[in-house]
Write a structure and sequence with these properties.
This protein has a single domain, classed as BolA-like (GMP Synthetase, Chain A, domain 3, 2-Layer Sandwich), CATH 3.30.300.90. It starts with a helix and ends with a strand. It contains two helices and three strands; from the N terminus they run αββαβ. It is globular. Helix 1 crosses helix 2. By secondary structure, the protein is α+β, with helices and mostly antiparallel strands.
């Protein structure tokens, strides 16, 4: 069975950022039939991630770190990605 986009995102973020908390939520069903819906049911995601690697790092840089970890997924196979990134204790 092929790996889902959700599990791919989880794996990439875990390997790159060693999060203490990670939630990857598939929100594609809320966007069915809208722009960016490719019919796969894997086009819109939200990520909630907490990692020590975000300590002392700006919000913009945290989002860049997440996007870097995901490579070509955002803007390619995934149409929309909402990111909430924090350091432990924030």
């Amino acid at each position: 069975m092929a790996e889902t986009m959700q599990s791919t995102i989880e794996t990439l973020l875990t390997e790159a950022l060693q999060p203490t908390r990670l939630e990857v939520i598939n929100e594609s069903a809320h966007h069915a039939g809208h722009s960016g819906d490719d019919g796969t049911g894997e086009s819109h995601f939200a990520v909630i991630i907490e990692s020590p690697k975000f300590a002392g790092v700006s919000r913009v840089m945290r989002q860049r770190m997440v996007n870097q970890a995901l490579g070509d997924i955002p803007g390619g196979r995934v149409h929309a990605l909402a990111i909430k990134a924090s350091a432990p204790g924030e």
